[in-house]
C-alpha cells in the first residue's frame, strides 16, 4: 500500500463524509440545490446514508481491499448519478460540485489498483 493511496483514500472518505454530514445537518448550500434539481426530500437521508457508508467503506478498504473497491465503485456511481441529475435539471454550472467529490474517490480506485 502506497502513501499516496492512503492519503487520497482518506481524503476521498473525508469528502464523502463531509457531503453526507451536509445533508444530515440540512446545510442550506446543499439542500437548496437538491430541491432546485427536483430531488425529492424523502430521498435526502438515504442519499446521505449512501455517502456515509461509502466513506466508511473507503476507510475499511485500507484493511479489506474488496470493501474499498466496492465503496469506491459505489461512490463513483453515486456522484455520476449526481452529475446526471444536475445536467437533467439544466444547472450545468453546478456540474463541478459532484465532480469535485468524485475525483478523489476515482483517484483512490486507480491508485488502489496500481498498488
UniProtKB/TrEMBL annotation:
- InterPro entries hit by this protein: DoxX
- Topology within the bilayer: Multi-pass membrane protein
Q: Which Pfam families match?
A: DoxX_2
Entry keyword set: Membrane, Transmembrane, Transmembrane helix
Q: Does the keyword Transmembrane apply?
A: yes
Give the transmembrane region(s). 6-31, 43-63, 69-87, 94-114
- Chief location: membrane
Q: Where in the cell is it found?
A: Membrane
This one is known as DoxX family protein
Amino acid at each position: 500500500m502506497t502513501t499516496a493511496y492512503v492519503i487520497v483514500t482518506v481524503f476521498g472518505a473525508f469528502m464523502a463524509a463531509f457531503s453526507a454530514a451536509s445533508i444530515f445537518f440540512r446545510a442550506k448550500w446543499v439542500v437548496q440545490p437538491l430541491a432546485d434539481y427536483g430531488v425529492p426530500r424523502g430521498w435526502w437521508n438515504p442519499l446521505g446514508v449512501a455517502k456515509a457508508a461509502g466513506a466508511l467503506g473507503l476507510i475499511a478498504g485500507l484493511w479489506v481491499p474488496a470493501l474499498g473497491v466496492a465503496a469506491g465503485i459505489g461512490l463513483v456511481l453515486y456522484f455520476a448519478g449526481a452529475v446526471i441529475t444536475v445536467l437533467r435539471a439544466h444547472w450545468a454550472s453546478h456540474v463541478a460540485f459532484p465532480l469535485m467529490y468524485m475525483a478523489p474517490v476515482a483517484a483512490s480506485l486507480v491508485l488502489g489498483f496500481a498498488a
